[in-house]
Automatic annotation (TrEMBL):
Gene3D superfamilies: hypothetical protein (bacova_03559). The keyword Iron-sulfur does not apply. PROSITE patterns: PROKAR_LIPOPROTEIN. This is DUF1735 domain-containing protein. It comes from Mucilaginibacter robiniae. Keywords: Signal. Residues 59-157 form the BT-3987-like N-terminal domain. Residues 164-283 form the BT-3044-like C-terminal domain. InterPro entries: BT_3044-like_C (IPR025371), BT_3987-like_N (IPR013728). The keyword Signal applies. Residues 1-23 form the signal peptide.
Length: 284
């Protein structure tokens, strides 16, 4: 009987201690009472993914849009709209470059348009958006442009710690991506070799031109450029960085947009004569 009394007494002591601890926590000002929090506005992408984010846009002769989203963090939805003012911040970009030893430059104002830098989070809503229309033809593929935005102020809410976002704008053409290649190279006088399902990456040079390894010679720095013409024929030329500068068409070279396949016949000059290549490169 005494053992049962001791057990009950111990259990009661634990309950009393727990209630005391809970009471002290509620009185402790180190604990935030979210019920009384003021509405805050933030870039949700910055909160979840960090300040620096890359926006990949397909090269186009017309402007290409992307969306900037601002989130409202509050205990309950608001019955009135919230106006959020954004600003382009060179200071934010300078701070990022200094902290990360990078050299990004601000996106030129001639390379994009917006309807303004003010957006509205409607009543009874959590998010508001702003559309940025980018002139991709004004952005070289090698450019390191960033659009740095900050929430400068808001009506009906306060900017929180996630009030800065840096969008790195990268332009790619429709051919940019991962491919599998099958091909044959013929080497005079009588040697040949083949490759099957060889992984290749086409990287954007401009809206119609991409760069990739020639044949199976990437490790030898044989790099070619593929320009898709208006009639879907393809012009093969050497990259300026290629170890061989004689790469050129040698028969039918075309692109099939329905299957996203390059069918190529090209050649380059070697010590024993022209090396001829027949190859198909299909997007994965």
């Amino acid at each position: 009987m005494k053992k049962k009394i001791y057990i009950k007494t111990a259990a009661l002591s634990v309950m009393i201690a727990a209630m005391s601890l809970l009471s002290s926590c509620l009185k402790d000002h180190r604990y935030v009472d979210f019920g009384g929090s003021q509405p805050l506005v933030e870039f949700p992408v910055a909160a979840y993914s960090g300040t620096f984010n890359t926006v990949g846009l397909v090269a186009s002769t017309s402007t290409t849009p992307f969306t900037v989203t601002v989130n409202l963090a509050s205990p309950t939805l608001l019955s009135t709209p919230v106006t959020v003012n954004l600003a382009v911040s060179q200071t934010a970009l300078d701070a990022y470059n200094k902290a990360n030893n990078t050299s990004y430059t601000i996106l030129p104002s001639t390379a994009y348009t917006t309807s303004g830098l003010t957006l509205t989070i409607p009543a009874n809503s959590r998010t508001g958006t702003l559309t940025v229309n980018v002139n991709t033809s004004a952005i070289p593929s090698t450019a390191n442009y960033v659009l740095p935005l900050v929430i400068s102020s808001a009506t009906g809410a306060t900017p929180d710690q996630y009030n800065t976002i840096l969008y790195a704008i990268k332009v790619k053409n429709q051919y940019d991506g991962s491919y599998l290649a099958n091909g044959t190279i013929n080497i005079p006088p009588s040697t040949s070799r083949t490759w099957s399902s060889r992984s290749k990456t086409l990287a954007t040079i401009d809206a119609t031109t991409s760069e990739t390894e020639a044949a199976d010679l990437g490790t030898s720095s044989y790099i070619m450029r593929l320009k898709v013409n208006a009639d879907n024929t393809v012009t093969v030329t050497p990259s300026p960085s290629s170890a061989n500068q004689t790469l050129q068409n040698n028969g039918t070279c075309k692109y099939d947009p329905s299957t996203k396949t390059f069918t190529l016949n090209y050649k380059y000059v070697g010590a024993s004569g022209d090396r001829t290549i027949s190859e198909t490169i299909k997007m994965q």
